[in-house]
Amino acid sequence: MDTKLARFRDYFANRSIILTGGTGFVGMGLIEGLLSSSPDLRKIYVVVREKKGQSPSERVVKLLSSEIFNHLSAETKAKVVPIVGNLTAQDLGLDPITLKEIRETVTVVYHNAGLIKFNRSLKEAVLMNVLSTLRCIDLAKSLVYLSAFIYTSTAWANSNIQEKILEDLYKTKESPREMIKLALETPSTIDRVAESQDDFIEGHQNTYSYSKQLAENLILDEMAGLPTGIVRPSLGN
Length: 237
Known about the structure:
6-stranded parallel sheet, Rossmann fold, about 40% helix
């Protein structure tokens, strides 16, 4: 067996994972890769909300019926556990029993979910891409045995940088927490300054890439000293 694949398999042996964005393109590929390469993986908890009349369980059943999973046994697919959640709520909106189980058994957090529409308001982008990241960070910090926190960003997160973009984190003018605070205010301060939105997203083509850069800054601020990785795929979530 390839050495890297063996290390990957061994790392995830007897581990449980929590994953957001599992029904999206990136999440689907990640779930398939984990199940295929890590036979001793315990569970993959997928945070899912009801959508278009489909319950979280129905959405995961539909996900696992995709052709990409056809080579996997029913026993392997059963490791994928749907849990009802809300990414902008405290503790992801998990019920107390599920939350306790997650905190005591999960060691790896994959945060893939996000709003990838380019024409949404700054408020929507901040809530879905920055506040949700804060909620996932808080959950990760509460785990008894945190081994890794992995955030799926985008290759466009630092598209406001005019020179060569390095594998680095670039600071935003605004504090991520301050932007979250503005987005949560009612009536929303961000909505009131919508006409000057370009002042916030200076150099970015849309609120999506700006909010992703904010989320990366939030991780830099909040996860110092903790095992953390940021992935920047060229495709959306």
